[in-house]
Amino acid sequence: MLGAGLIFVVPPIADLARSIDRATVNGGAGGMAFFGTLIGAAPFFVLLLVRKYTRVPPFIRALRDPAQIVWLYQKQVSGAYAGSRAMIGLANGSVLEVMSAGQDLLDGAARLAPHATCGYTPQIEAAFRANPASLRRF
């Protein structure tokens, strides 16, 4: 679908490039080279935009597969970026930190993953570091 849009955009740009090329004083290919570069780089920038706007944040992926969530807790941060963070521990050993998320996100995640351990203690953290799957409650 995206390719069809590019078909309609490229011919007008090519016509504009030819007109600028004819308008160059020395009759050189300065204008055509510029627009050739522009047209050559356009697919790259289109792919970057598509990737940026279709990427799913990691915590959304975790919520889509709640079986991977093994640990949930809230962390308070002080300093320049003070506030609460929702921390989501996954079965692969990674921890997702969701900024500007309060208790509501954790409550929702706990309903999605009732098997996950909730809360923080140093003992829970040590168990998570040793074997994340051990925090699953059955």
Describe, in plain words, how this protein is organized in 3D.
- This protein is α+β, with helices and mostly antiparallel strands and 138 residues long.
- It folds into two domains: 2-54; 58-135, Signal recognition particle alu RNA binding heterodimer, srp9/1.
- The protein is 53% helix and 17% strand.
- It has five helices and four strands; from the N terminus they run H-H-H-E-E-E-H-E-H.
- The chain has helices spanning 2-23, 30-54, 58-64, 103-112, 122-130; strands spanning 69-77, 83-90, 95-99, 117-118.
- Helix 1 (2-23) runs antiparallel to helix 2 (30-54).
- It is elongated, with a radius of gyration of 26 Å.
- The relative contact order is 0.11.
Overall pLDDT metric: 74
Widest β-sheet, arrangement of strands = 3-2-1-4
Tell me, briefly, the overall form: elongated
Low-confidence parts lasting 5 or more residues at pLDDT below 50? 3-9
How many domains comprise the coordinates?
A: 2
CATH class descriptor of the largest domain:
Alpha Beta
Q: Helix count, per DSSP?
A: 5
Main sheet makeup: 4 strands, mixed
Tell me the fraction of residues in β-strands, as a range: 15-25%
Binned, the helix content reads 40-55%
Helix and strand composition category: alpha+beta
Corresponding CATH architecture of the largest domain: 2-Layer Sandwich
The CATH topology of the largest domain turns out to be Signal recognition particle alu RNA binding heterodimer, srp9/1
Element string (H = helix, E = strand): HHHEEEHEH
Radius of gyration: 26 Å
Distance between the termini: 46 Å
Beta-strand segment tally = 4
